[in-house]
Amino acid sequence: MKCTRCRAKAEVHLRAHNAGFCRPCYLGFFRRQVERAIAAECMCTPEERVLVAVSGGKDSLALWDVLLDLGYRATGLYLAQGIGGYSTRSQEKVEAFARARGLTLRIVELGMEGPGLAVPDVAAVTRRSACSACGMLKRHFFDEAAIAGEFDVLATGHNLDDEAARLLGNVLRWQVDHLARQRPVLPPTHPKFVRKVKPLHLLSEYETAVYAFMRGIDYVVEECPNAAGATQLVYKDALNRLEAASPGTKLAFMREFLRTGQRAFAGRPAEAQGAPQTCTRCGMPAWGEVCAFCKLVAEVESKRARAVTGPAA
Ligand SMILES: [Zn+2]
Ligand SMILES: [Zn+2]
Questions:
Q1: By the 8 A CB rule, do 52 and 104 touch?
Q2: How far apart are CA 265 and CA 121, in angstroms?
Q3: Which of 208, 214, 242, 278 has a CA 20 to 30 Å removed from the CA of 305?
């Protein structure tokens, strides 16, 4: 197969786009897709300061790389979750990436925060699933780091496969509130929130993997051992089968939802629940008097105290 753009020998074939690319043209194609997604949704401007949440995986490192390449002012944020060897290896990848390029990287060590909030400890003490504890902690520390560092935008590496699987899950259960909020840009609804964006939302996992490979990005290949709500993987698998039978299905599913379907859910009363209040303990946004994070910290502290003193008589 020949490159669709320059007729050289193609190195990658994208069935969803009915196109083939040589290496330089593929890198150009990928950058253009990101640029277009950013422009179409007004995600950020070159003047703004962008905080990129990096996990050590291919998507977030590819995102950081391409944002810098496109001239955005992007700083990395890594959350050390304390999930054994997986966390150690992913932190090493992120640090090596930043070091090799002379980039600024911020690291939040969950084990050193509050009463000690490493994900496995929080999960064990509160009897939550590791994924639910992790998701909650991530949200809080991403928001906090973005506001503390005076960033304008928080960017995450969610790709088309992630977003299409999430959309499928929301549709299968008709979670209309979630559908109302599933957008690649979320404007801040509280002074302590910054804009949240997903510039890779229309690029597939395969496309970001090819980009990372071609750019020589060394990333952690293993998934988080707690991973990934098995259900999310089932949806991804189902979508991959549809994609194999009919290339372009995932992209059309996501793009047409945003272009036409989403409108039907946005602005519903449930979505118009208004802006969050302010947590009386930490000052971050809260639905109620105290935010979910402070409730979690209080729960961890009280259960640990009880474990030390034994059950009350
Ligand atoms: Zn070419
Ligand atoms: Zn709070």
A1: no
A2: 38
A3: 278
pTM: predicted TM-score of the whole model, two decimal places: 0.93
Written as six digits, the tokens of 124 are 């064990």
Distance 216 CA to ligand 1 centre (A): 19
Contact 126, 303 (CB under 8 A): yes
Instruction: List the one residue out of 166, 232, 209, 185 whose CA is nearest residue 61.
Output: 209
> 212-263, pLDDT tens digit by residue?
999 999 999 988 877 756 788 899 999 999 999 999 999 999 999 999 999 8
Q: From ligand 1's centre to the CA of 26, what distance in Å?
A: 7
Cβ atoms of 189 and 285 within 8 Å: the answer is yes
Ligand nearest to the CA of 20: 1
User: Encoding tokens for residue 63?
Assistant: 């995102």
Distances 4 to 19, 29, 243 between C-alpha atoms, Å = 6, 11, 21
